[in-house]
Amino acid sequence: MKTSDGSKHTGLSNLSRKSIDVAKYYDDWASDYDKSLADWRYDAPDKIASIVRANLTQESRILDAGCGTGLCGKALVTSGFTSIDGIDVSQRSLEVARGTNAYENLRAIDMQALPLPISDDQYDGLACVGVLTYLTDSVGTLREFSRVVKPGGIVAITQRNDLFAERGFPDILSELVNEGVIARVHTSEPLSYLPENEEFTDQILVRYIDYTVV
Ligand SMILES: C[S@@+](CC[C@H](N)C(=O)[O-])C[C@H]1O[C@@H](n2cnc3c(N)ncnc32)[C@H](O)[C@@H]1O
Question: Among 9, 33, 54, 199, which lies 20 to 30 A Cα-Cα from 149?
Fold first, then answer.
């Protein structure tokens, strides 16, 4: 399995962060993204959906930020959620996501362009899975996530372990706690991410982070 789609998706661990490049990359991949990720034994959407479910009732309104083809939306539906919106920069991924019927609303939004075009306190929960790699303004992005989620709601995100350190996530999370923007931060140990992808294997791991919006 390690070489499945390898020739087509080499360099995945070090893609351009420019939104126009990212959108093209994921547009070109959209039709067989789900198969690649299944081959690589990607289970982050299921894990994030479990974290969201452990913290919120099934009636909660959830934003899947960087929804891609809808893997996290499907996992949230399996967990019992029925009110899910998705945003992503890749139009073709959004088309695939639309076909899952997991989402109420899907919008093309470039999350590198802050502030997000979303009103304050719209959601009870926000899930962001496999996306923060591409979002270079970490503190700005996390502030925006807290703005669009109601006080008492939760944010559940993944961040690659190497970028967690490189981008100063421990300090950013502490800063937001000290400012009274977020509370009850839980950060997992580094866990397996794409175990059957030859660039990731057990070399690039992921952290699961969740917190309450104040
Ligand atoms: C690894 S995929 C993850 C998709 C989905 N969350 C999942 O778990 O399968 C990364 C997603 O982030 C989206 N993305 C990257 N940069 C973005 C940006 N600036 N604005 C919105 N979406 C972005 C990509 O288009 C892609 O769908």
Answer: 33
